[in-house]
Structures are given as C-alpha cells and as structure tokens.
Amino acid sequence: MTHIFGHRGAAGTYPENTMVSFQAAEKFGADGIELDVQFTKDHQIVVIHDETVNRTTNGKGAVRNYLYEDLRALDASYTFYDKVGVQPIPLLEEVLEWLKTNNLFLNIEFKNNKVPYRGLEEEVITLIRKYSMEERTILSSFNHYSMKKCHMMAPDIETAILYKEGLHSPWAYAKKMGASAIHPNYRYISDGIAELTMENGVAVRPYTINDEEVMRKFLKMNVTAIITDYPERVKRIMQGVK
C-alpha cells in the first residue's frame, strides 16, 4: 500500500512548512508529512525550506543570521495570507509536540547541502528521541555524508538518500550509505529502476508528484510512498483505485 506524504504539509493549498499546512495534510488523509530543518543564529531548529526567508516570508536575509525570536515575528503565510492570516515559522519541537496527537510519519529533510549547519544531526536526533519518534521518522538530505553520519549515530532511525539526477543502481548506493530508502526526483527514476530498488529491499518515495497521471502511474507500481503538495489528490485517486 503506497503511503501519501504531504510535501511541506499540504503546500499546494496552504503555506508550506507551517502548522496550518501540516494540519491540513492530516485532514486530507496523508499518512505522513515532509518538512525541512535549519538552525537559527541561536541554534534553534526551525522548519523552513530556503536558506533565506525572502521567498516565503515578509522578511529578508539568511535563516542562520536570525535569532529565533526575530524569525518568529515574521509572517510565513507566503501567498495564502487571505486564506490563513499570519503564520509563524514553527520550531521542529512544535511539530513533534503536535505529532503526539496523531499517528503520522515524519520525513525531516536536513537543509545542510549548501550551509553546513554543524551539529544539526545530533540536535535533531536528540529531539526525535525526546519525543520517542524513532519508529515514525525518516531523515533525508541531498547531503549524503550527513545521512551516513545520522545512520552511524542512530541506526534505529531510517535514513533516505535524496537526489535530483539519475543514479546508477540506487539500491546499492543507498545500502553503502546505510540508508534504507531513496527519495528521487520523480522525473529521474525509470519504472524499472524503481521496481529493482524495491526488489532489493530499499524503499522508494519519489518527489514532488503533483500531476494526477503521474500519481496514477506510481500508484500502479505500488511505490513505497508518493511525496506531493496535494495529498488530497492522491487520496482521491486511491479511493477511486479501490
């Protein structure tokens, strides 16, 4: 059974990486949410995708140059202000607190491929353990060294290799890096490779699938999960598929 992961929550219809977006993904029937983490200047783990606040908030500048108190004052409602009003940038801990109220899976993407946030792996793993979320969490990153480090530190927490371009024998590479899943850009994984990867015991969760025809294709293949901005679309198709 293919799982549905809401990409940055329900980012197609709500402001990405905000509590209101994660709550919407749950309401739409997602099995899990995907979010992105970075450090503030005072080492708080915040949920935001870009290395700067420019695109998704009314502020300017790099996330790492903000104290959390100042970051919290920004409005992250993005283009959905009329629908949801002012939305703060959440702490990862806030999301974990909310996840205690449901059974959703959590995919945490480390945004450490451009900014080498030192100690981010340790801090995130500490929080996951604090909330006993080991069984429900998947860590992913385009920084594969970071994923190897996470696996060595916490072999009981699943890690996934994120990648944009084609990868030769991704199942072998994932295993070499201690990962038990791949999260490929859906455009760069052929049906054959996806199937072979799963046959070799490695989970396949392509991103970011928003087109209904593509959703249908991957659902027919029974991939491990679909990562989408529109979890409600996948849910609707799956109910039709049944």
Can you describe this structure?
With 242 residues, the chain is an alpha/beta fold. It has one domain: Alpha-Beta Barrel (TIM Barrel). The protein is 35% helix and 18% strand. Strands 1, 2, 3, 4, 5, 6, 7, 8 and 9 form a 9-stranded mixed sheet that branches. Helix 9 crosses helix 10. The chain starts with a strand and ends with a helix. The model has no long low-confidence stretch (mean pLDDT 97).
Short overview:
With 242 residues, the chain is of the alpha/beta class. 35% of the residues lie in helices and 18% in strands.
Give the tags.
10 helices, 18% strand, 9 strands, alpha/beta, TIM Barrel, 242 residues
SSE map:
Elements: E1 3-7, H1 19-27, E2 32-39, E3 45-47, H2 68-72, H3 81-84, H4 92-99, E4 105-110, H5 120-130, E5 137-141, H6 144-153, E6 158-163, H7 170-176, E7 181-184, H8 191-199, E8 203-204, H9 212-221, E9 225-228, H10 231-241
Parallel strand pairs: 1-2, 1-9, 2-4, 4-5, 5-6, 6-7, 7-8
Antiparallel strand pairs: 2-3
Helix pairs in contact: 9-10
